[in-house]
Amino acid sequence: MDRFVDQLRVRSEPRPLREPTERERLRTAFSRFPTGVCVVAFEAEGGPRGITVNSFTSVSFDPPLLLVSIQRSASSHDLLLDRPFSVNVLGSSQEDVAWHFAGRPNASPVWIEGAETPRLAGVLAWFECTPWAHYDGGDHTLVLGEIQSFSSRRGDPLGFNGSRFTEISETVLGREHLI
Ligand SMILES: Cc1cc2nc3c(=O)[nH]c(=O)nc-3n(C[C@H](O)[C@H](O)[C@H](O)COP(=O)(O)O)c2cc1C
């Protein structure tokens, strides 16, 4: 009986088929940094388009700038450069929207016609930007936008941690006043 249990244990333990590559190890290390999830949206080829990103970073207040890092191999890459775009911060109930713009289309997203560029309905925050600059970022391009208008509301953000979507709880009321 004990031998049977031992055999079961040996069989059920996940064993890697091969050693992870350097790229996979780096991806795993990057994934230890939890982030929110955004959709970068813009108008191209006669309609609204979007790409899911977690590389959103606030950059500057004066002038108001933000940054997203876009992989060169994405079909959005060449279309996005030098166009107005919006960054839409997703709420925890918008995982399907994140998948939609990450290559797994599902129920159509609800678009809003912004002043500069299309944006998405129901998000926690949005920023409409005009192109500011872009910089070489290896196999990505760092795209900076100058914020022309923005808005935000309270709510739980969608998070990305350890290569999985997760829900981030809104800051406990009061805690932010301690900072
Ligand atoms: C949570 C999450 C975060 C992502 N972050 C980025 C990112 O910061 N930059 C990027 O270029 N792609 C990112 N991607 C991958 C793109 O969303 C994905 O490759 C997309 O299908 C590209 O679409 P396109 O080729 O139509 O432009 C992310 C995907 C997910 C699910």
Automatic annotation (TrEMBL):
Protein known as: Flavin reductase
Flavin reductase like domain: residues covered: 30-167
Record-level GO BP terms: pyrimidine nucleobase catabolic process
Keywords: Oxidoreductase
Residue runs in coiled coils: none
PANTHER family assigned to the protein according to its UniProt record, in alphabetical order: FLAVIN REDUCTASE (PTHR30466), FMN REDUCTASE (NADH) RUTF (PTHR30466:SF1)
Alphabetized Pfam families for the sequence: Flavin_Reduct
Keyword Oxidoreductase attached: yes
GO terms for MF: FMN binding; riboflavin reductase (NADPH) activity
Superkingdom of source: Bacteria
